[in-house]
Amino acid sequence: MKVIKRLRVPVGVVFGVIATVLVGCASFSSQPKYTAEQVMEQGFKGDDSLIKKVTQGKGTQDDFKRLSELVNELAKNKPTKGDMASWKEKTSALSAAAKNLVQGTPGALDSLKAASNCKACHSVHKPS
Ligand code: HEC
Fold first, then answer.
1. Rounded-to-integer distance, Cα 87 and Cα 125, Å
2. Which residue has the least CA distance to atom 41 on ligand 1?
């Protein structure tokens, strides 16, 4: 009896830890926070978009971080059109460039300009 009583607390703790880990895993799963459409609307669409501001060299550190978050979410999406290999290549180039920009790596802005080519991606992956 004594042994069982003693065990109760540790068992509760263990379950608590397992539950925390499971919840943590769920939020780290491949489920993107934003759809490709949302990423485009929040970061790419229009003349005053975040991507324009940043590629014109007017971005702040906060802009870089926000852009990095958006393109990371874009990369977690599956393309509704075009093949996965091409999507992976394009979105990971975007993610890498945005990350480098956040970290202040030289040349990051140029790689971002190349990776954010609207037409190059849309012609393959944007459903008409
Ligand atoms: C790496 C790929 C990629 C790049 C780069 C990209 N887009 Fe997109 N864009 C997409 C995809 C995919 C869609 C279709 C989303 C959907 O409807 O599912 C889209 C859709 C859009 C839409 C329509 C969103 C809506 O409301 O339905 C706009 C506007 C847009 N992009 C603007 C831009 C602009 C401007 C640029 C360049 C500065 C750009 N995109 C660069 C992938 C990209």
1. 7
2. 118
* Among protein residues, the one whose CA lies closest to atom 7 of ligand 1: 118
Report how far apart the first and last C-alpha atoms of the chain are (Å, whole number).
69
Sorted by sequence, the CB contacts under 8 Å of residue 61 that are 6+ apart come out as 102
Handedness of CA 27, 31, 36, 41 (dihedral sign): negative
- Are 51 and 116 contacting, i.e. CB atoms less than 8 angstroms apart? yes
- Write out pLDDT tens, residues 77-111: 999 999 999 999 999 999 999 999 999 999 999 99
How far is it, in rounded angstroms, from Cα 27 to Cα 90? 24
**Phi-psi map region of 16: left, alpha, beta (phi>0 left; psi -120 to 50 alpha):** alpha
Contact 51, 44 (CB under 8 A): yes
